[in-house]
């Protein structure tokens, strides 16, 4: 099975990071590792971050040079991981370099078979109008003599990968609008 | 974890899913000879690193733990002094409480719910709880517990868990050995525990055994949830859940109890325990929400808060959407078409939306729910869909909270890629635009959103520092941030966005920066607490309820398990951690042994009088879809308090048609619904295909070979994937019958580089009685070779 041979390969080749560099660069592993260390990190700016995946909360250093993420590595000072990382944490450079990232806001009209690119101003304006329309049509101020001030016609899902400051803002806006359907990954 | 003598890992696979946590367990093994016990349906990566593996059929945790509880009591392997002083073992329960044939008193069959007023404690005329310190009264919690679990004898237990007797006894002996005050044991669990119709009671059963063994609040102890996402802790603390407000205050509902602020305070404020401060926390939260519009005249804007009238959890949400009740939806980095239970139904439900906004780094299966590639007919779907590119974690700044409640700062390393924006920017600009649309309107619908204060700077980007201050809270007179939640008031003079975080940004005037989550001093301040690295809520406490780490007199139970202790010369609690207790409360004074300060009466609950919807004690019931029809513990097969969803596209499978138990799990290489990882080349190459893992025995019975294409079918639908035949699954012997179990990852979908069919097509809409967390981890299916 694919999985087994790959794992053995990882074991044989030592550090996962080295192997990942091979996959990426596709030539002599040792040389590739040495060169990538030497060339990519030299004079880069280093910023500490926390792994975006599981909640162990490992520290990672992000090396940036010429507007690109050139290298990431475990934060050697971090008390939880002391420089080590698992394969997911090791690969976070590709969160930036991936070609698959959505580049610009996109819109799909009712019944349409495709996306069209739109600008932020138009997209946010249109979304805000939709929110207002749905909210105004569905809002209940009072029910059975009690003030309830809610709308059950809009739902908000997510997200457990966002930052505390962001989730604070999201829940504040959504509750402020009167939403009751507010959920995220913790439930599922 | 490094200080543990025994780790029982159940319903989780940290070696694969939380790999770095294993470093710390390995240290415990190397340095203290700690034992690792792995209890799981499958011989996992974690099992391979453990001292002992015990097999457990999916959905039988309570039977297994009930067996341990019984074993501990029968053999006197419990920490008696701890149990007497720190738990409610001595409390007397009224005669109304009863348990008969799987049903607790107070049950309403029509409603499938309990009236918990029959589960209360006996009190004297002044409302004080009556106790029997000798623990011998038949109505005391300890005796009721003993009686309840006496039914969980080893033979009955293993007849349904499928565990071998030898393995069960070895786990019981080893783990219950931590009842010795010199030792501690920890339980580590994850979604294998919670994703069941009795998931909450599974966790309760872990808590009960840990309390009996005296393992809570001590170094190397605890009941530890290994959380799956970097900030699932924080996003729960901040109440992205329908039933909560930030800091675990109950969300107001449309009942007389919550009619107005006064009623809410009366209903939600217990007498005793830290929740006595509920009014201070709530009014400060209202001030954070509504600023100047929150005044004593208008109940501080309490009425502006939405009041719900029912359960709005994930399954309910998609059921309502399926029925056409929901018109618009936002998803922030969430992908229910892959991750939601009964995902085909959830995807279908989305076709009823007028508009849908997906905020993500990638075009997920959910964002593409309307495309032909997804199997839909776009010309028949009238939903307006918006795909907003979010930026990655190091393209913005802010904090995330890990499983240990450490709030850690993530800095921005680089500008957002392409035209991406942070979620903070998106919500900020959306809020400003929506508020603008309501400007000048004068009607009761507009009023609540007009009243919402949105004060995060004048720039295009919101100022993270201002948000941090609002969360921490500040004094409205001086403008300085508060030092802790202890100074929050209910008179409108303080504002605080989330009281439990109060203190991470202490005593700072405007313009003065003091964000403790940025701290990076990696020196061990004792017992691996690293008190100067980042910040842990509440008040930088690293181990909750750490008063229990010391004996009733205030001395550590064991010299190498010190956390905090009473220093009589200073009349103060001192030690390696911040006391989770009144710092100057003498152990010999009143309340001096009330170690569980959040509980109304200061004691941990062996018996839960009011915390659970489905009984004061855990009881074994079978999963919604079970391979057996005769539960040996009672005549009741399914948790009697779960809600059954009998709508369309959610059929229940029976064992005659679907004889195989199935579960899903995660892989090291992928993450959640896979959108983050399946869009990256490296990890996609490491784990490129969807597969179905099965035992050699099952493969042989079905004529399946490794890498064959197989079809797995449940009552909800079917999927195709490659067979992976392993020794990690073994058939179970359940009540003398052979039962097979298979497993599969749930990471795959039709978008991205590594694609595969969606496992959750198979899972049902059914959830836990308390939390409505779906039962992903035990459902029935059948499997066959494709085209045969
Ligand atoms: S590096 Fe691995 S173990 Fe550490 S936080 Fe990230 S996903 Fe979890």
From TrEMBL, chain A:
<dbReference type="GO" id="GO:0030313">
    <property type="term" value="C:cell envelope"/>
</dbReference>
<dbReference type="InterPro" id="IPR006311">
    <property type="entry name" value="TAT_signal"/>
</dbReference>
<dbReference type="GO" id="GO:0009055">
    <property type="term" value="F:electron transfer activity"/>
</dbReference>
<keyword id="KW-0004">4Fe-4S</keyword>
<dbReference type="GO" id="GO:0009061">
    <property type="term" value="P:anaerobic respiration"/>
</dbReference>
<dbReference type="InterPro" id="IPR019546">
    <property type="entry name" value="TAT_signal_bac_arc"/>
</dbReference>
<keyword id="KW-0560">Oxidoreductase</keyword>
<protein>
    <submittedName>
        <fullName>Formate dehydrogenase major subunit</fullName>
        <ecNumber>1.17.1.9</ecNumber>
    </submittedName>
</protein>
<keyword id="KW-0411">Iron-sulfur</keyword>
<dbReference type="InterPro" id="IPR027467">
    <property type="entry name" value="MopterinOxRdtase_cofactor_BS"/>
</dbReference>
<feature type="domain" description="4Fe-4S Mo/W bis-MGD-type">
    <location>
        <begin position="44"/>
        <end position="100"/>
    </location>
</feature>
<keyword id="KW-0479">Metal-binding</keyword>
<comment type="similarity">
    <text>Belongs to the prokaryotic molybdopterin-containing oxidoreductase family.</text>
</comment>
<dbReference type="GO" id="GO:0030151">
    <property type="term" value="F:molybdenum ion binding"/>
</dbReference>
<keyword id="KW-0408">Iron</keyword>
<dbReference type="GO" id="GO:0051539">
    <property type="term" value="F:4 iron, 4 sulfur cluster binding"/>
</dbReference>
<dbReference type="Pfam" id="PF04879">
    <property type="entry name" value="Molybdop_Fe4S4"/>
</dbReference>
<dbReference type="GO" id="GO:0008863">
    <property type="term" value="F:formate dehydrogenase (NAD+) activity"/>
</dbReference>
<dbReference type="Pfam" id="PF10518">
    <property type="entry name" value="TAT_signal"/>
</dbReference>
<dbReference type="InterPro" id="IPR006963">
    <property type="entry name" value="Mopterin_OxRdtase_4Fe-4S_dom"/>
</dbReference>
């Amino acid at each position: 099975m694919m999985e087994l041979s790959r794992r053995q390969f990882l074991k044989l080749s030592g550090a996962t990071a080295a192997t990942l560099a091979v996959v990426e660069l596709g030539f002599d592993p040792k040389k590739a590792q040495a060169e990538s260390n030497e060339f990519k990190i030299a004079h880069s700016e280093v910023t500490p971050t926390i792994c975006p995946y599981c909640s162990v909360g490992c520290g990672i250093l992000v090396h940036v040079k010429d507007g690109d993420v050139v290298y990431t590595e475990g934060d050697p000072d971090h008390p939880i991981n002391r420089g080590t990382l698992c394969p997911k944490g090791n690969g976070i450079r590709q969160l930036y370099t991936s070609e698959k990232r959505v580049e610009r806001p996109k819109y799909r009209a009712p019944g349409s078979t495709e996306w069209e690119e739109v600008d932020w101003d138009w997209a946010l304006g249109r979304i805000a109008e939709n929110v207002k329309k749905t909210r105004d049509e569905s809002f209940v101020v009072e029910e059975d003599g009690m003030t309830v001030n809610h709308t059950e016609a809009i739902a908000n899902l997510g997200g457990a990968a966002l930052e505390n400051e962001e989730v604070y803002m999201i829940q504040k806006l959504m509750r402020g609008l009167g939403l009751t359907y507010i959920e995220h990954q913790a439930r599922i | 974890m490094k200080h543990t003598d025994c780790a029982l890992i159940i319903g989780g696979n940290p070696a694969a899913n939380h790999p770095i946590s294993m470093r710390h367990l390995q240290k415990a093994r190397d340095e203290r000879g700690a034992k690792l016990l792995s209890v799981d349906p499958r011989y996992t990566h974690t099992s391979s690193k453990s001292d002992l593996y015990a097999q457990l059929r999916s959905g039988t945790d309570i039977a297994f733990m009930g067996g341990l509880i019984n074993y501990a009591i029968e053999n006197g392997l419990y920490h008696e002094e701890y149990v007497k002083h720190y738990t409610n073992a001595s409390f007397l329960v009224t005669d109304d409480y009863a348990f008969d044939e799987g049903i607790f008193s107070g049950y309403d069959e029509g409603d499938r719910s309990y009236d918990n007023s029959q589960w209360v404690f006996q009190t004297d005329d002044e409302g004080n709880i009556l106790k029997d310190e000798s623990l011998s009264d038949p109505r005391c919690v300890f005796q009721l517990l003993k009686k309840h679990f006496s039914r969980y004898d080893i033979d009955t237990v293993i007849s349904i868990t499928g565990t071998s007797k030898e393995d069960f006894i070895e786990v019981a002996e080893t783990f219950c050995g931590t009842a010795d005050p010199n030792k501690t044991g920890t339980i580590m669990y994850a979604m294998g525990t919670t994703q069941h119709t009795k998931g909450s009671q599974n966790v309760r059963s872990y808590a009960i055994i840990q309390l009996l063994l005296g393992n809570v609040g001590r170094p190397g102890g605890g009941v530890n949830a290994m959380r799956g996402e970097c900030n699932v802790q924080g996003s729960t603390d901040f109440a992205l859940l329908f039933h909560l407000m930030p800091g675990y205050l109950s969300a107001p509902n449309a009942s007389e109890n919550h009619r107005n602020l006064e009623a809410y305070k009366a209903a939600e404020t217990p007498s005793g325990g830290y929740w006595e401060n509920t009014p201070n926390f709530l009014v400060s939260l209202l001030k954070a929400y509504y600023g100047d519009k929150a005044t004593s005249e208008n109940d501080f804007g309490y009425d502006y808060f939405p009041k719900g009238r029912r359960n709005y959890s994930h399954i309910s949400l998609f059921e309502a959407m399926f029925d056409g009740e929901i018109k618009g939806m936002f998803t922030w980095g969430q992908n229910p078409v892959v991750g939601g239970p009964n995902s085909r139904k959830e995807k279908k439900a989305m076709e009823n939306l007028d508009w849908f906004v997906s905020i993500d780094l990638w075009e997920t299966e959910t964002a593409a729910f309307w495309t032909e590639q997804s199997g839909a007919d776009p010309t028949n779907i009238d939903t307006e869909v918006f795909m907003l590119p979010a930026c990655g974690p190091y393209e913005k700044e802010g904090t995330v909270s890990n499983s240990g409640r450490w709030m850690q700062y993530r800095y921005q390393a680089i500008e957002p890629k392409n035209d991406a924006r942070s979620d903070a920017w998106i919500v900020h600009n959306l809020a400003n635009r929506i508020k603008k649309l309501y400007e000048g309107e004068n009607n009761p619908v507009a009023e609540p959103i007009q009243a919402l204060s949105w004060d995060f700077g004048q720039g295009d980007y919101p100022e993270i520092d201002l948000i941090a201050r609002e969360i921490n809270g500040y004094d409205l007179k001086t403008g300085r941030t508060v030092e802790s939640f202890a100074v929050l008031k209910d008179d409108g003079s303080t504002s605080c966005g989330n009281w439990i975080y109060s203190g991470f940004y202490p005593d700072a005037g405007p313009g003065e920066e003091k964000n403790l989550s940025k701290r990076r001093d990696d020196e061990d301040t004792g017992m691996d607490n690293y008190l100067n690295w980042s910040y842990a809520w509440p008040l930088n406490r690293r181990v909750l309820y750490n008063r229990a780490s010391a004996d009733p007199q205030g001395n550590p139970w064991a010299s190498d398990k010190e956390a905090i202790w009473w220093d009589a010369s200073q009349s103060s609690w001192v030690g390696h951690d911040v006391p989770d207790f009144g710092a100057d409360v003498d152990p010999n004074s009143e309340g001096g042994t009330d170690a569980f300060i959040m509980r109304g009466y200061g004691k941990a609950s062996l018996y839960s009088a009011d915390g659970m919807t489905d009984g004061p004690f855990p009881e074994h019931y079978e999963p919604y879809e079970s391979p057996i029809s005769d539960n040996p513990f009672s005549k009741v097969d399914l948790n009697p308090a779960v809600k059954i969803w009998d709508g369309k596209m959610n059929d229940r499978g029976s064992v005659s048609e679907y004889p195989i138990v199935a579960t899903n799990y995660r892989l090291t290489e992928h993450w959640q619904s896979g959108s983050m990882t399946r869009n990256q080349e490296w990890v996609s190459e490491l784990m490129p295909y969807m597969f179905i893992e099965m035992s050699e025995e099952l493969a042989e019975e079905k004529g399946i070979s490794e890498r064959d294409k197989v079809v797995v079918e449940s009552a909800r639908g079917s999927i195709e994937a490659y067979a992976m035949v392993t020794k990690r699954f073994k058939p179970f012997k359940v009540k003398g019958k052979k039962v097979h179990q298979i497993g599969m990852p749930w990471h795959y979908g039709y978008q991205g580089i590594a694609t595969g069919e969606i496992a959750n097509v198979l899972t049902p809409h059914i959830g836990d009685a308390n939390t409505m967390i779906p039962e992903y981890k035990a459902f029935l299916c059948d499997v066959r070779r494709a085209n045969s």
